């Protein structure tokens, strides 16, 4: 409605003083819109896509050339200008789409979930670009399902069932909520969450980071210490926007029954579900996957991490029998990757990175189609169909075209179809991309329920808080495995006491100043604050505290353990340096 693409039934919007209903051309001249779905032409190069959008805006050749050169440098996309858009990684596609939106110098930029499916390194680059644009005077409106990103905005509006229910700075919105949050820090968060579910209402517990909502913080801390004696730390923390979001969700009285049905009919064997030795895939002269060796037992949640274009999806497609390896060997569910790809498909569930359902079919028709492929029929199909509709939350929308579903609902439907036939091994390629916090929480409860019943869950994700909930992780870069181990092991290897958490309002204002300090080697946005790496811990802390005193800012500076996002970025930057 703001962009003029949809006419409101009531009310009116003004952009730069022009009405979006009666002065659409004036609005379009001053606005750029980056839609939720990829809006580039995959067969055109980077240069050709930019030229096409410049022509749409009627830019002269000289004006277009000057603006293109500036934006290519601004976004670090210059080396890829001759590459086709369809051959770019997810992060580079998002950058190119942003360049196309900015080609005509808009005053207002609308971004609809711009970082879906983008790895942490590319997300960091994307937000750096946005802050530079704001510094030049541009107004940016961002919609996002990732509320750590919303914490970085100057103002936020929370929508619930079409109503604007909260508005203000992130700090104001959190303060007005009156929420009290206790965080539990421990090595085995999933185990801790299970223990707490037996003691508390499930809607009090947030799976990520094991965060507990309560009325009396001190009483809750005492109870948590009794229930979780092995926890490393239990303390009260500032509520986050995601905590507020979760309080808005209606209680799901059927969830426990639903979760109890997730693993119905599954009887996984013992031993290894996935075994590979030197698994390799080449396309011409390009090596997409280079000598990957894995051994994943039944009942394990195995996280597969890496930046866009690292080879995660190619590896998963080989393991699913969809691609034949160029070299190496492996087995999935006891079947050989080179010669028994069709047998593998009968023993696995697969949810692909791109939406894998048929948009022209109705919701229930997609379920029936996948049920038929997996050999379900009659009463068995009817029972699983009802279960899938419950799992996806689409009982009331069963007859709607799948194309009409928002991204998060599609993901839930795709997951339900992937496990419709109760497979012992499930491959999930970025299953929560675009899903809201409540849906992501449900996804991981389902994943844990599957693993508890012996199902192997092989999952790739770009969201590092999700990586914390995998039993083991492997990180690949340019097709090669560069690290593996549990989240705790990987963080311990990179904990050198030189990483600081800075808690401060509007942290983006201090990025440049902190980065210029001689003790600082790296600074990045992290949730609602900053993560800063220094050369010397004591000298670095003094320097930062002096800086904030001079800025008359009430900032808290403290040593912190690295998060999985910190570890991911450090390992990828090391690998790039080695290249």
Outline the structure in words:
It is a single chain. 38% of the residues lie in helices and 23% in strands. It is α/β, with parallel strands linked by helices and 579 residues long. It starts with 13 loop residues before the first strand and ends with a helix.
Summary tags:
single chain, 579 residues, alpha/beta, Rossmann fold, Alpha-Beta Plaits, 6-stranded mixed beta sheet, 4-stranded antiparallel beta sheet, 25 strands, globular
Mean pLDDT: 87
Given as residue ranges, the uncertain stretches (5+ residues, pLDDT < 50) are: none
Q: So what's the overall shape?
A: globular
Per CATH, what is the topology of the largest domain? Answer: Rossmann fold
The CATH architecture assignment of the largest domain turns out to be 3-Layer(aba) Sandwich
Per DSSP, what share of the residues sits in E-state strands of 2 or more residues?
A: 15-25%
Number of strands: 25
Helix share of residues? Answer: 25-40%
Spatial strand arrangement across the major sheet: 17-18-19-14-20-21
Number of separate domains: 4
Q: Termini separation (Å)?
A: 46 Å
Q: What is the gyration radius calculated from CA atoms?
A: 24 Å
What is the highest CATH level, the class of the largest domain? Alpha Beta
Structural class: alpha/beta
* Number of H/I helices: 22
């Amino acid at each position: 409605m703001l962009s003029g693409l949809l006419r409101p039934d009531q009310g009116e919007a003004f952009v730069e003083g022009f009405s979006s209903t009666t002065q659409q051309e004036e609005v379009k001249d001053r606005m750029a819109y980056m839609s939720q779905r990829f809006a580039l032409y995959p067969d055109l190069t980077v240069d050709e896509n930019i030229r096409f959008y410049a022509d749409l805006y009627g830019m002269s050749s000289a004006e277009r050339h000057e603006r293109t050169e500036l934006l290519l440098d601004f976004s670090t996309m210059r080396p890829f200008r001759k590459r086709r858009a369809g051959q770019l990684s997810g992060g580079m596609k998002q950058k190119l789409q942003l360049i196309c939106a900015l080609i005509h110098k808009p005053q207002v930029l609308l971004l609809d979930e711009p970082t879906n499916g983008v790895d942490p390194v590319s997300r960091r680059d994307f937000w750096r670009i946005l802050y530079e644009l704001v510094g030049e005077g541009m107004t940016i409106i961002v919609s996002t399902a990732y509320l750590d990103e919303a914490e970085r905005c100057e103002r936020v509006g929370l929508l619930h069932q079409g109503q604007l229910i909260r508005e203000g700075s992130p700090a104001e919105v959190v303060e007005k909520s009156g929420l009290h949050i206790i965080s539990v820090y421990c090595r085995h968060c999933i185990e801790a969450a299970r223990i707490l579910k037996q003691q508390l209402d499930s809607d009090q517990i947030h799976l990520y980071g094991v965060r507990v909502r309560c009325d009396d913080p001190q009483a809750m801390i005492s109870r948590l210490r009794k229930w979780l004696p092995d926890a490393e730390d239990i303390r009260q923390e500032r509520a986050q926007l995601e905590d507020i979001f979760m309080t808005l969700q209606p209680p799901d009285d059927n969830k426990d029954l639903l979760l109890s049905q997730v693993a119905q009919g599954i009887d996984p064997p013992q031993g290894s579900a996935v075994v590979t030795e030197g698994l390799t895939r080449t396309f011409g002269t390009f090596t997409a996957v280079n000598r990957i060796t894995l051994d994943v037992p039944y009942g394990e949640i195995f996280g597969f991490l890496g930046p866009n274009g690292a080879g995660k999806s190619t590896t998963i497609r080989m393991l699913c029998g969809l691609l034949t390896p160029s070299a190496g060997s492996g087995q999935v569910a006891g079947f050989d990757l080179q010669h028994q790809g069709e047998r593998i498909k009968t023993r696995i569930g697969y949810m692909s990175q791109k939406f894998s359902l048929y948009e022209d079919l109705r919701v229930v028709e997609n379920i029936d189609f996948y049920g038929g492929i997996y050999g379900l029929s009659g009463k068995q199909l009817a029972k699983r169909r009802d279960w899938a509709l419950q799992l996806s939350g689409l009982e009331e929308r069963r007859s709607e075209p799948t194309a009409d579903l928002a991204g998060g609902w599609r993901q839930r439907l795709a997951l339900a179809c992937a496990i419709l036939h109760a497979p012992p091994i499930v491959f999930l390629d970025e299953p929560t991309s675009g899903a809201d916090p409540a849906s992501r929480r449900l996804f991981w409860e389902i994943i844990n329920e599957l693993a508890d019943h012996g199902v192997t869950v092989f999952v790739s994700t770009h969201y590092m808080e999700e990586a914390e909930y995998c039993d083991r992780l492997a990180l690949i870069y340019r097709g090669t495995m560069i690290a593996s181990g549990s989240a705790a092991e990987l963080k311990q290897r990179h904990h050198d006491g030189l990483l600081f958490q800075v808690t401060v309002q509007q942290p983006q204002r201090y990025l440049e100043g902190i980065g210029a300090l001689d003790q600082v080697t790296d600074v990045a946005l992290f949730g609602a604050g900053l993560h800063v790496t220094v050369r010397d811990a004591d000298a670095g802390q003094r320097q930062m505290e002096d800086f904030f005193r001079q800025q008359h800012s009430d900032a808290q500076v403290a040593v912190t353990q690295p998060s999985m996002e910190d570890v991911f970025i450090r390992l990828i930057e090391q690998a790039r340096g080695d290249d």
